[in-house]
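If you are new to this repository, start here. Below is one unmodified record pulled from the training split, so you can see the exact layout before writing a loader.
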Amino acid sequence: MKKIIIIQSIFCALFITACNQNSESNNSNSNTSTEENALAGQSGVKDDVSNPNIVQVAVGSKDHTTLVTAVKAAGLVDALSNAGPFTVFAPVNAAFDKLPTGTVEGLLKPEKKGDLENILGYHTYVGVIDGVLLQDGAEYDMVFGGKVKITKDSDKTLVNGTPILATIKTSNGVIHVIGDVLLPK
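And here is the target side for that same chain:
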């Protein structure tokens, strides 16, 4: 009888040890994943259930590849992935094509990061400008570069004279698609 109790005790000890090692291994893997997300910043958080944020919507748009490249070059992916809320006046690729030859390429150089941040900041407002806030004559202070002015032309809403082509609500704000790059005055 004594041998049976000793054998059972040994099996129990081995079982408990194995369970603890497996649990520690799972916790270690879980912590590594959490640490990797923390190092990646807000943009590193993966969520397939929630509505996409401003950056995720832009990345998924074939019409905003130049804007996405600029946001990445300026190091603003995490900032625009945060909770916000933000309003982004998002120029389409054709808007960047209207700029003088070499402008975009020049702004994407590391030494021009500050200028690029300022231009992109002039397209970004902290808060949501939508609906009743898009009134004729309204002015809004942007993150960088000063104010933008909203005007109306019959059924069109314009920002600094540029028509808003579409409006997309996101989990952290709103995107107003525009056909021109806004330049601070």
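Two things worth knowing about this chain: The mean pLDDT is 80. The beta strands are 86-91, 124-126, 139-141, 147-153, 156-159, 162-170, 173-178.
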